[in-house]
Each structure stands twice: as C-alpha cells, then as structure tokens.
Amino acid sequence: MQYRRMGQTGLKLSALSFGTWATFGVSVPRGTARDLIAASYDHGINFFDAAETYANGEAERMLGDVLIDLRLPRDALVISSKVFFGAVTDPRPTQHGLSRKHIRDACDQALQRLKLDYIDLYFCHRPDLDVPISEIVTSMNLLIQQGKILYWGTSEWPATLIREAAEFALAHGLEGPKVEQPQYSLLAREKVEQEFSELYPQYGIGTTVWSPLASGLLTGKYNDGIPADSRLAHEQYQWLQKPVLQNKAKRIAAVKGLSDEAAKLGATAAQLALAWCLGNPNVSTVILGATRIGQLEENLKALALLEKVDAGTRARIEALFA
Amino acid sequence: MQYRRMGQTGLKLSALSFGTWATFGVSVPRGTARDLIAASYDHGINFFDAAETYANGEAERMLGDVLIDLRLPRDALVISSKVFFGAVTDPRPTQHGLSRKHIRDACDQALQRLKLDYIDLYFCHRPDLDVPISEIVTSMNLLIQQGKILYWGTSEWPATLIREAAEFALAHGLEGPKVEQPQYSLLAREKVEQEFSELYPQYGIGTTVWSPLASGLLTGKYNDGIPADSRLAHEQYQWLQKPVLQNKAKRIAAVKGLSDEAAKLGATAAQLALAWCLGNPNVSTVILGATRIGQLEENLKALALLEKVDAGTRARIEALFA
Amino acid sequence: MQYRRMGQTGLKLSALSFGTWATFGVSVPRGTARDLIAASYDHGINFFDAAETYANGEAERMLGDVLIDLRLPRDALVISSKVFFGAVTDPRPTQHGLSRKHIRDACDQALQRLKLDYIDLYFCHRPDLDVPISEIVTSMNLLIQQGKILYWGTSEWPATLIREAAEFALAHGLEGPKVEQPQYSLLAREKVEQEFSELYPQYGIGTTVWSPLASGLLTGKYNDGIPADSRLAHEQYQWLQKPVLQNKAKRIAAVKGLSDEAAKLGATAAQLALAWCLGNPNVSTVILGATRIGQLEENLKALALLEKVDAGTRARIEALFA
Amino acid sequence: MQYRRMGQTGLKLSALSFGTWATFGVSVPRGTARDLIAASYDHGINFFDAAETYANGEAERMLGDVLIDLRLPRDALVISSKVFFGAVTDPRPTQHGLSRKHIRDACDQALQRLKLDYIDLYFCHRPDLDVPISEIVTSMNLLIQQGKILYWGTSEWPATLIREAAEFALAHGLEGPKVEQPQYSLLAREKVEQEFSELYPQYGIGTTVWSPLASGLLTGKYNDGIPADSRLAHEQYQWLQKPVLQNKAKRIAAVKGLSDEAAKLGATAAQLALAWCLGNPNVSTVILGATRIGQLEENLKALALLEKVDAGTRARIEALFA
C-alpha cells in the first residue's frame, strides 16, 4: 500500500481506502462486512469512511461491530463520520444540518454507534447556509478540544465556503477544515482540479475522493444497459441515473476506449479509472466501495498500475472523456 | 408547525413553543404535564422553556421527569433553563445572581433536576449589576467549553447591557449572547420593537418572547372582572395585576375590539394576539403557557391564522392598543 | 450578617468569615469543629478558609468531614484552599511552591481532603520567585477551565508581583488574580492601605484579611504576659512572638487605650479591633479564628459595632497605634 | 541530592536522574527494577525517564508496576514519556510520528502502561518533518488542556525546529516546548554547548541529557576491547558501535587520561565524566542508566565530586577529548 499525507497535515492515509456508503447496513451481511474490513486492513488500507446518514446509522453501527469483532488496533485505523443529513428517516429541524446542536448530538451518537472514544475525521457532509460559518467552526473546535474528534473537514462544499471557514479559523486561532470529500472521477473533474486548486497550497487541505468509478459506469458494467442487480437499478439510487447516465451514448463510447487503454496495460477499465484518480497528487485517498472480497482485490491492483500510467496514456484517456 | 432560526444562529425553533412557567410544579399534575408535552411535541413544538426559579426548581424537575416518561429523542428537543433568582425560597448571597459561582451551581443543579447531559439555551434571567460583564461572559463560555450548555442568552436585559456583553465577547474571541427572552404582546411592544432593533442585525440575536397574551388579558377573560380561578386572582401572582390591569377600562375596550377583528377571521382574540406576535420577524418563537390540552390546541391555531392577518388588520389592531 | 463583593467580582462574602488556621486539625475536636461551622453558618458566615499546609492537610480534612456531617448546601458556601507550602512535613522539591506540577497536585489533593467537586477560591499562599509568572497564571487558568476552581488569588504577595500577574492575564486573555489574603490589623496596616491601594481600582482585587487581632495581642490577653495556654506560648508558634510582641511595652499601652475606647462603646478591645478592620472598604472579609462558640459569637458582635465607630473614634485608635 | 530548575520553568529536577532506556523491560528483572527505583528515590532522584519505544512499551509498563509496588508519592515524582517511534515492532503509518493522531494515541497508551493520571514531561522523541509545527504544538497543548500532561518538550531536535515551535507557541498564546533531551558527553558537546546556546536565554528551555558516559566508553570498560556482556556487544545495540567507537584508538587514549585526572581526585573516570556534564549550568539533569544498585551508587557520587572539579581540571579533560 502507498500512504499519503492528508493535505499538509501529519495524518497519513492509505492511497486507497474503504467506504461503507451504500453497502454496510444495506446489502452486506455482517460476516461479509467483517471479511471486507479484514481484507482491507491486511492489504494496508487504514481509512474507513462512514457517515451518520449511511443506511440511517446502520453503516456506522456495522462498522463499529466489525471493528470490535476483528480487534484491530485503534491507533492503526482512521475512522470518519459525517454530520448533516441526520440519522433518522424523517428528521425534525434540530436533527440535521450544521447547527451547534446537531453537530454535538450527531457526534455523540456516531461515537455510540461506532463504539469509539474518538473519531479521526469529522466531516460537514454538505454546506448549511442557515448556519453562520462562525458557529460551524467553533462547534467543530469544541469537539476537538473535548477530545471527541481529531480533525474536521467538509464534503461537497464549494471552495468559497471552505475558504471562508479556513479564514475564520485562522483569524480566531482555531482549527480550520483540513480535508474535503468531493466526488472525483474521469466524469467529474472540475471541483478537484479547478475549483479547489488554490485551497491546496493556501490551506493545506487534503481530499478523500468518492465515486471514482462514477457509480460503476467506468467499470463498463452499464455498457449494455442497467443490469437488474446493479446499484442504478435500485429504487433507492435512481437519483444517480441522471447524472451518471447523461450523454449515455457518448459516455459509453468513452468507457469502451478506456477499456482498450486498460487492456494495453493488462488491466481493467475500473483499475485504470482508479489509477487515473491516484495520479492526481492533490488526491489524498480514493475511497473504494465493495461488496465482495474479489471486487476489492481487483480494485486494489490500481495502485500497482499507477506507475505504468504515463503522461501519454493520461492524455489519451482524458481526451476520451473531454 | 413553522420553524424559525433563533436570530442568526443555526438553531431552528418552532414558532410556537411551550413554557413551564407558573404551571409545572404549581397547578399541573404530572399526568397532565406529560399529556401537554406529548401534544406539544406531536404538533411540532420543539422548544420547552424552564428556569431554576420556576416553582422553585419543581418546573424543571417535572419537565425532566416527563421527558423520561415520554422517551422523546433528546436531539429533537430544545430545552432551556435560566439562572439568577436561585431555586430556594430564601437564598443566601451566593445562591442567586450572576456570579461565576451561582452560574456554575445553578447550571449543575438544573442539569440534575432536568436529568439531562446538557442544556440547549441557558439564560441570564435578569441583569446583575453587581457582577462585571467579563465575569458573566467568561462564566457562560466555561459552561459551553465544558459541554454543559450550547448557547447562552439573556432575559429582560436592557439593550445596552446585551450590547456590552456582545462586544466583550467579540473582543475576546468568546461566545456572545445569542438570544433574549423579553415580554412581548400588544400591550408591551417597546423592548422588542424599539429598544432591541439594532441588536438583531448587529449581533444576530433571536428572541423567545413570553406573556404574548399579557397574562390572559388579551384572551378577554378579564373583560368582566378577575375570575376567582384565574392567575391574577392567585395570591402569588397579584404583582401582575398592576401592570396587566393598568388603564383597565381602556384596555378592556381594546380587547373587545380585538375580539371583533378576530371574529371577522373566524378566530379568537387570543389567537389573533398570538398571530400578531408571530407577525414580527424578529420574534424567533412565542412561548405559550397552558394547563389544558384544549387550551394548547386552541393557541396552536394562531399559526394558521398568521397568513390571514394582512397589513390592514395589523394596523387596525395596533391602533386599538396605541 | 453583612455581605460584600470580593473586589469587583460577582462573589459576595460575609464581612466576617471563618478560618481554620491553627485550630482545625490541631486543638479543636471534631464535635467542636462541627459546632463552630454550624454556628458560623447560622450567623450568616459563608466563607470558610483553609490551606493545604494548615495542620499539614488535617484542617482541610476536618473541614470536609464537618461539611458532610452538617449537610450544608454547597452553593451557599465559599470554600478556599491555598497552594505553596505543601502538605507534608518534609516536602521534596516538587511537593511545594508554585510550579505547574505542585499547583495541580495540591489542588487535586485538596479536593480529595475537602471531599468537594470544586474549590471557590484558590490562593497562591506565598510568592515563588523560582516560577515564572506565566507558568503560575496559566496553571491557575487550567484549573479554572477544568472546573476545579472558580477564582484564584494570592496571599502575602507583594503588589508588584500581583500587578505582574494581573497584567500577564490581561495581555493573554486569561483570568487574573481576583483576591489577596494579607495580614491586616491595627498593627499591620501598610500592605492593605498603602502598598495595594492602586490594585483595588485597577484590577478589582478583593482582600480576605487574616490575623485582625494580631495573634490575640489586640484582645488584651497578653497585657500581663504570655498565658501558658495561649498560641504564642506554643512551641509551634513561637515564631509569632517576635513580630507580635516587638515594642511590647508601647504596644500593650496602645491595647489598653483601645480597651478604653471600646468600653465607651460598650464593647471589648477585640470587637473594636475587628470593627476597625471592617471600616476599610477595601477589606472584603475579615477572617476570624475561634476555638469556642462563645469566642466566635463575641467576635461576631463587631459587625453591629461597626456603625458606632465614627471618624473621631477611628482617628483616636489609629493614633494609639501610630 | 542537588535540584535544578528545568530551564526557566518552575519544575525542579534532581541533578542526576534515572533512565529506563535499554534496561527496563530488557535485561532488568522486576525485583531489581524495584530496588533500583527505591534506591534512586532514597538518594533524592525525582526524575524517571521513559518512552513509548523503550523495550517496545515494556519499560513504561515495568516502571508503572514498580511505582505501584513502592507506593511512592506521585507528587514527589517527575515521570516522562516520549512519542514518535511507536510501541509496536512494525508500526503502520499512523502508529508513529508526530501527527495529532499518534500524539493522542501514544499519550493515552503511555498513561495506561504507566498506570498514571498524567505524565509530567512529554517529549517529541524526534523531529517529524511530515507534520507541520502548528499541528505538533496544538496537539501538545490539547494534552495540557485535557490534563494528560504538564509540560512538553523535544528530544534530539535541531535548534531551528525548537525555535520554530517556540515562536509558533508564543505567537498563538500556546505553551511552547520547555525541555530538550539531547545526547551530551565529553564526546558529544556540540548540540548542548553550541547549537542550543541561544535557546536557553530566549525560551527558557531546560535539558535532560542522556548518554553522559557515551554508552560506557567513558567508564573505560572498552579500553581493552568490547566485553561479551556489554551493551555494545548486544546485537540490538550494534548500531551504537560506530558512533561510540569511531577514532577508537584516540578516544581510548583520552579515556585513559580521564582516568588519570579522576584518580587525582580519588574518583573514577565515569564519576568525573558525569561531574563534567553537571558542570554545565544549562544541563538540568543528567540521566543515568543502571542495572545494578552498586553501579547506581557509584555514579551518584559524581555529585559530590562536582565541587572538586575546578576550571583547570575541566580545561585539561576537555583538551583530552578535543
């Protein structure tokens, strides 16, 4: 495994990491969950990503249970959670968002579900324009001071708001956001590559990117339509169909080109898509979703592939998706 | 239910809320208290107001008991307490006021009576000119840092003192007051509308207003004298008679006019008086007192009435009480 | 009882208060200790003064035991302790002084001996020139932030050092010293009246004065020599003989004059000496030592005497001790 | 025993102190460990030095066990630990270094192994250029605020980095490093005497020096080769051979000269080498390693020797090692 500093912090994340979104507490039984976490750990993955809203709290609960089962050393694990959406299906006004109240309640509840003393990375899962930046930054700092979290960050925030938070923190001697969790793939490059470009040098922010395979599109599995057992076929994730499958014909053509490039390197489209993400030095870690060990191990090969992806290959595959 | 941000904070309060003053621990049995809190919650009320001095601590104790009975989710509830008067009938010098000592003792005791881990809103119930503003602000901030309260505010403070506290906090990187609890009704408009007008934009302060019906006068129940079973008839509340019933004849004439306006809208004088309060955008929530479910539900209809109260109606009823 | 603000803080101390020095853990049995504390409380005394070094920790232990016996309300009591001398007879280098280490250890141990959650007033019992002011001030602030103490102060410090601590605190947004415990009596006026005169208005410092009767000299009990059962006769307190009995003849003449002035007001020399202390508005409280209820009650009469002590009387008795 | 302030702090360390490195958890049985600590304490030693990495955590565990056995008063002991190398033989990326994560985990684990409530001195065992100074300083300050440590320092850091940490702390109102643990002996003088010379007056930093006998070379025990039972013969410490035994012939000649000087004073080479270290006023304490009581007691005699080492002797022995 390769390890990268999370931005300019001292925390080192495995370049590939494990996400519980849309799998833990949903479709993955506890035994499989345990095997997936064990295999991840054995392959050197150290970052396990969760959120209060994933499976309405069940992802955290399952992750916490499995960590106890496996007796992995706490200090070898980077565990995240996220606050914003709440962990109840029909939340009341104080049960979501980024008010000091929900930040406190959500963190206490995540610690209980995860059965941990502290959370390594605590993300504001979305921006909340109904809460002043000062309230968000000071509330996150209270959690740090009280020992409940180590670092805080944002997910899917616009650069302007991250900058505002970082500047407020600097001006008041507080801890600013140290990590952002954006979507990033060959199909979604703008945020990570353009919008955030000034944040990296100025505030030392790292990124833990999600959906590197664009909900599976980049694996080629939608090349011949939406399989009945795929995520996009699920009622719950149909909202993903539109962003993922817009310009469907053009995209699928590009995916086929990607497969051809991958084949030249003896790899799959998915592996090449992951390796391409890893090629961006501002990416601290690429979060993998997996429901099977085999799938996980296939994806982990992206790391070895990385050194074979030269500038020419990068240019050609980027041209495919331009 | 409608929800409003408490000033410029991230906390969202139900526009109508439930006060325990003069009812819990006094005249309301525990069963009724439980039914009132349950009905309030079912109607979307999320803010429940208490104070160390209400029924000498018994209001908090009853509220705490009932919250346990009902197993309502803590994160859906905004619970307040207030420090100043003490919770003993003949307090010694350190058992009231806003010294660091009483602030600490009162908060610890309120948490015990309420059986909670933290209080959402903690109010300085009156100003205390014997305590420097610096001591009050830093003591409230200690409670925030120690996780015992989330936000602090004031009740019945003059604007000048709120401003002083807010400026001290800003100058020292501390949390300033975020909410004031003033009296507000057609008969008591000056503080909320005039005195505090600059505080809202400058410091983002919200208001949780009490006595919106002027101790019942605006319901019309004193139109024909003071009923034997009414609050004003109670020995304990006779101090309210003078402010409520000054200019009695003129006021009762106005209340009758209010009833007429209400009738035009198919509502009661009480509902219209509440709706008028809600019409002020600087009011974060209007605290209702109730001893019976029926009374509570009648008052809750004020919210639906609000949209029917046009500018003309507002002008006419304000003229009645001018 | 009269109550006075401790300097410009919000804490109100009884003008006369109870000290455990040289009595608790030494000569007073637990039953008497309980009666003394009970009588003090009944007479309105709210401040009980202790220190780690008094009877090598036994004074705190006895005070803590008695407070539990009496079930007095914690929020009605102001309890102090002091750090410097250590609580062991032959302390090692880290077991005394004002290093961060001893401040922490001493406070934790005092809380254990007193069986309390927090100490109201925590004094640096002497200056310690081997410790930088920054270390003392930040260590005291750590205790405040951790909820172990409410206010901190000094005892027998020179004004220059108090000023240095207060300025360091102001410059760094920390809590400065709020109270000094100096010796003060007709025989020891310089510190309270001259040396500290600028500290009161500038830093709002209060004083809790000790030895108002100059180890008993002002009661007249040494007029005819040192009684065998008096404190000065004790081997342990012979160091007091020199400062107390210097210029013995002149002093005893003055004490006789004081007795004459007291007689005119129907009081004793001791009562007048105490009333004279109380006449200084910069004195927050006068600490009484007592081993018998009768003695305590006699001394408490000084408060009623205060209003009879006019400017002329003050001038005459001050002239006696000039 | 002589005691010295640790730099300009208020903490007083015994001039000679006890290190657990390379002995506790390695070759010393628990009974001997207990006897060594007891003898050290009886001779007035108050500082006991440990680190997470010493014997992979076993040194701390043994020290903690022995402190419990001996029931020594906690407030008479200065206990250190160090964070950097981790306490596992093959640490993962988050299990070593100076990230906020490892600082927290290492401190919690050291407290558990030592079975203490707090650590007196917590050292950053090496610099970590992968962690920004701001993260190191704020993480150490979190431990101070949370009451887990009292002072923090560095070990084997370059002066430039210590200065950077101290300046960051000053600029942000935080606690800077107060102590450095460098190697210091007649064979390693540059850091303590030259490189750090400006740090002492500017930041008040103390030093707790280690390896004052250059891994035994200065005792003369390697004069005739490496004895089979000596540390340098151990496989584990062979890395020490090169630095210790470079210029072997010249060094051994110097050691013989040192023995001659020592003999003139009725002392051993080891005692004179220790006394020479103690002669530097910027040395707060010299850490002794010992596996036998006799060895410890021999070394403790260096303190009495100190006053016999005049300027001429110093000059001559320094010339030997020039």
UniProtKB/TrEMBL annotation, chains A, B, C, D:
<dbReference type="InterPro" id="IPR036812">
    <property type="entry name" value="NAD(P)_OxRdtase_dom_sf"/>
</dbReference>
<keyword id="KW-0560">Oxidoreductase</keyword>
<dbReference type="Pfam" id="PF00248">
    <property type="entry name" value="Aldo_ket_red"/>
</dbReference>
<comment type="similarity">
    <text>Belongs to the shaker potassium channel beta subunit family.</text>
</comment>
<protein>
    <submittedName>
        <fullName>Aldo/keto reductase</fullName>
    </submittedName>
</protein>
<keyword id="KW-0521">NADP</keyword>
<dbReference type="GO" id="GO:0016491">
    <property type="term" value="F:oxidoreductase activity"/>
</dbReference>
<feature type="domain" description="NADP-dependent oxidoreductase">
    <location>
        <begin position="16"/>
        <end position="305"/>
    </location>
</feature>
<dbReference type="InterPro" id="IPR005399">
    <property type="entry name" value="K_chnl_volt-dep_bsu_KCNAB-rel"/>
</dbReference>
<dbReference type="InterPro" id="IPR023210">
    <property type="entry name" value="NADP_OxRdtase_dom"/>
</dbReference>
